[in-house]
Amino acid sequence: MVNDDTVGAPDWGALYRRITEARHLVALTGAGVSTLSGIRDFRGKNGLYNDMDANKIFDINYFEQDPSFYYSRAGSFIYNIDEKKPSVVHTVLGDLEKRGFLKAVITQNIDLLHQKGGSVNVIEVHGSPKLHYCLRCAGVRMDFEEAAKIVRAGGMPQCPRCGKILKPAITFFGESLPVDALREATSESQKADLMLVLGTSLTVYPAASLPDYTLRCGGEVIIVNNMPTPLDRQAVMRFDELEPVFEGLQACLGDK
Does 57 lie in the same domain as 144? Predict the structure, then answer.
């Protein structure tokens, strides 16, 4: 397979042609996509795992015992996401969808930036904070804006019926991924003749298995990530840094 980031200067035109000539293009995105927007990833050199017990923050059993642990620590990187702006990756993916090239974005992220960047068909396989709900009372919901306002004021969103602290609709460790989202993501991966794997090291399952569906169904993958992935040798193109790649694509789109 071709590893284009090691063969002279990157050929953005060749990358653009692969993307625009694909019959069913899908993108799989991870935390690295959002670092360009100032949101920390988990396992990178400045990731949350370096100074936070992220496993504990997103553990469902711990949340049920002490939800204040989640809210006191997640406030700094979840409940200020409405202040973050989409990066060039988000906006180019939105533009590719608008032009009819990109069929779906499958994301492991929980920051809502793909929607801000213009993407409409976003499959959130790890859930989303756009809704908060009561683990006890069926039907009790609170939207992100209201919950974020409470958290930024130092509180925690509470169920108006039973008083229990609401949980974000993010998939915590110990919970199953959203069935409908995972089913849709699997279907899109199987249909894809080209998948862009962006900002993910493909270590968190089952989302990490999605490119395998594309490959097994005869499709190809292009990987852009600053850390190695298990599929690097199977990628038709492989780049390290997201920003120059998507600035190159943005220039190609601007010329059309």
Answer: yes
CA 171, chain centre distance (Å): 13
Contact in structure between 171 and 199 (CB atoms under 8 Å): no
Model confidence over 41-50: pLDDT tens digits?
555 555 555 4
User: Which CATH number characterizes residue 155's domain?
Assistant: 3.30.1600.10
Question: 29 and 108: one domain?
Answer: yes
Domain that holds residue 164: 42-83+127-170
Q: Rg (Cα) of the chain, in Å, rounded?
A: 19
48 and 164 housed in the same domain: yes
Strands 141-143 vs 122-124: parallel, antiparallel or unpaired = unpaired
- The model's pLDDT over 15-36, given as tens digits with 9 standing for 90+, comes to 999 999 999 999 999 988 988 8
CA-to-CA distance for 113 and 232, rounded, in angstroms?
26
Check whether residue 109 and residue 236 sit in a common domain.
Answer: yes
Which residue stretches of 107-178 are H helix? Answer: 113-116, 144-152
B/e letters for 48-70, b = 16+ CB within 10 Å, e = fewer, are beeebebeebbbeebbeeebeeb
Known catalytic residues? 126
